[in-house]
Amino acid sequence: MLSCVQPLDRHESTVSVFAHPIRLAEQKLRRAPHLSALSFHQGPSKGKKEKFMSRNPFFQAVRRGTFAGQPAGKLVNWLAKYIQVLFPEDGVEWWSDNQFARLADGYRADTELPGAAAIHHFACYVRTGNESPIIEVNIVPKDGAPRSLTTVKLFARREVCWKMCDAIALALDSIFSWEEVPLIVEMFEKLPKRHSWSIESCLAESVVCEKTPNSFTVRTETGTPIDAVKFDDKQPETARYAVAAVEHDWLKVLGICSVDVKQVEATLL
């Protein structure tokens, strides 16, 4: 088990969002149902398989799952960590939990989230706050008025706030419309940190990323395992896409966490 001076505190915060539940996916790249629950986020595509990676610059690897039916606070906490990973240089002062909102107006932390069938779209915007920009996020149901999911106060430039909105838009679309949860947060949490608020990992050694056509393994240079995924080699093309998605996100996370990386590519035995 990887550890540092202090254990990683898994307590998460909350954040706000921008979303639209429509994704233009290339049908040829639809995930085969018998593959591992771990796969790749297809996203908008130009239709060329060799360029399967979507225009989504924030995440690629996903697992099957959703936050529908779960407390709103759990989703807001996940989004907070997601934004922390993707925008480590931009400060967030607080996230609201709608504790004092009327239930008709907002989702409190313990309010159950609706499923995709009841959601028309997600709406978010950046507004001017007293000291800095504020992001508001709402869930717009098919049969009612918008309800606030959360509000976030940031210390970031306005254009960065809109990029955060784009990032959360893609995440919410994936989670609710496709029932695919981005793995980038789970990857980040697998790396040991000295403090719960730390971005940089406290690993004292390099990390080795080993890739085969149907698997991807992350371990320390001395052999301590961090992560390992394997896909069905009976669908080699789809497995290759999924491996590339996991590799893409792991390299992003390792870079954000300032970890020295050594890449190894091997063939199937």
Explained architecture:
The protein is of the alpha+beta class and 269 residues long. Helix content is 23%, strand content 24%. A four-stranded antiparallel β-sheet has the order 3-6-5-4, covered by helices on one side. Strand 4 and strand 5 form a beta hairpin. Helix 1 (72-86) packs across helix 2. The model is unreliable at 3-37 and 42-53 (pLDDT under 50).
- Percent of residues in beta strands: 15-25%
Query: How much is the radius of gyration in Å?
Result: 19 Å
Q: Quickly give the structural class.
A: alpha+beta
Shape: globular
Question: Which sequence of strands runs across the widest sheet?
Answer: 3-6-5-4
Domains (count)? 2
Quaternary status: single chain
- Helical fraction: 10-25%
Number of strands: 11
Helix-strand sequence: EEHEEEEHEHEEEHE
| Unreliable runs | 3-37, 42-53
Tell me the span between the first and last alpha carbons: 28 Å
Mean pLDDT: 80
Describe the largest sheet. Answer: 4 strands, antiparallel
**Helix count, per DSSP?**
4
What is the element layout, followed by pairings?
Elements: E1 38-40, E2 61-64, H1 72-86, E3 91-95, E4 119-127, E5 134-141, E6 147-155, H2 158-177, E7 180-182, H3 184-189, E8 207-212, E9 215-220, E10 225-230, H4 236-256, E11 261-265
Parallel strand pairs: 8-11
Antiparallel strand pairs: 1-2, 2-7, 3-6, 4-5, 5-6, 8-9, 9-10
Helix pairs in contact: 1-2
